[in-house]
Structure formats: structure tokens, C-alpha cells
Amino acid sequence: MTESLNDLLAALHAERVRTWDPQALQVNVRQRRTLVETADRAAWVKAGDQAPDVRLTEVDGEELTLQGLTAKGPVVLILFRFATCPACNIALPYYARNLWPTLKALGASLVAVSPQVPERLAEIKRKHGLEIQVASDQNRLGRAFGVLYEFDEASKAAAKARGGSIGETTGTGTWELPMPTVVVIDRTGKVVFADVSPDWLVRTEADPIIEAVRELALVAAI
After folding, report:
1. pLDDT tens per residue across span 125-147
2. How far apart are CA 222 and CA 217, in angstroms?
């Protein structure tokens, strides 16, 4: 049993409850609750879908395509928000510790994908010394997978009061971000596992992802 990502994220929320201004906390909680309640789950990526062959820019400069990645083996995509997102700074190191070593042994790739422009996105890879690939896609995958959301008015107002917008942070110029999403794609480009969380403080644990990739490895061995 690996460590629990959602326990780590629950601890982040508990710290916010203890230290944040109640009004700021309420804006955050309401936005996440609204996303859970209003999410169009029918539009989300699901097993059986064909993944789009979008072009990704790895923060170290390499250009990636899903076709090129799947030619080598299964691919796990982790869609996340941006480099300074606190929850993402918990999630990506968690996946690097608990997911990547097993995926590498199984011959699978792991790519963490954000809409943020590469020159800003590189911060999260450098900060944690991540060996996994971290890539920018300008929300192409988020749109294709049906998992984009836009800040509500209260969250927009709070961001502006802090002196900016999420579009300025990401470099995209929009208020859109992907919901945390994990997609496992086989060598034919077919999605075999997909998990989407509209609440960014609830995310996919490593074990079900590993199970999905192991099943692919077993099928390939038959």
C-alpha cells in the first residue's frame, strides 16, 4: 500500500482551515463544491475513447506527441493546473515517488501536462527535481478530454484582488484550467483508464493507475 495522496491533500486543506482568512477559504471551498455539483460528467474522457494526437512541449525543450509516446509503450497522462498550484506541488512529487518507478519498470511513460507556458511551467520540475516529463499543451488535451473549467465570479474577483488573473499566471490569457485528470493510453492510442476530479483537492491515487498499466502489460505478454 503506497502513501495516500488524498491524505496529503486533506492535510493541506486542514492547514488552510487553520491559517486562512475565513472569507478567502469560503471562496475556495465554494468554487470546488460548485465544480463537483455542476460538472458535465458525460463529456469527460472515458475508457474506450481514442486519444487525440496533440503536440506537447516538454519544459526541457523536447516536442512530444502521443503517437510517438505510445510507439514505445503505454502512456499515463497527469493533467494538472500550473506550477505554483499548492495541490499540484503535492501531487506531482507524490506521483514521482509512488507511480513513476513502477511505470518505468513496466515500460510505460508518465507525462504531467499543464496549460501553463513552458518557461513558467519548468519551475515545478526544477523545484522538486522531477525525473518525470512535464509538458505544456495550452489546454488542448483538457478541451479534447472535456475537463476544462473556468473560475467562478467570486474566484475571479479574489484573484484580481491579489493582483492578477489565472491567465496571467499560466500565460494562456484565459480563466480556463483542467480539472485534475489521469488518463492511461495503450499502444493503439485507446484510453483504457480515465479518472477526473472536479475538486482539485481530491486526486487519483497511484494504485489504480498502476493496476491499469499492469493489466496492459499482462495482455501484451499473452
Report:
1. 999 999 999 999 999 999 999 99
2. 9
β-strands 63-65, 75-79 pairing? unpaired
Q: Report the C-alpha gap between 150 and 162 in whole angstroms.
A: 18
The C-alpha angle with vertex 61 and arms to 54 and 74, in degrees rounded to 5, equals 45
What pLDDT, on the 0 to 100 scale, is given for residue 220?
67
Does this model's pTM top 0.85? yes
d(CA 203, CA 65): 25
Q: What is the pLDDT of residue 221?
A: 57
The C-alpha cell of 182 is what? Answer: 489521469
For residue 109, list its beta bridge partners.
75
Q: Domains of the chain, with CATH numbers?
A: 5-221 (3.40.30.10)
**What confidence score (pLDDT) does residue 162 get?**
85
pLDDT tens digits for range 88-115: 999 999 999 999 999 999 999 999 999 9
Name the E strands within 54-167: 55-58, 63-65, 75-79, 109-114, 133-136, 148-150
Rounded Cα distance, 120 and 143, in Å: 21
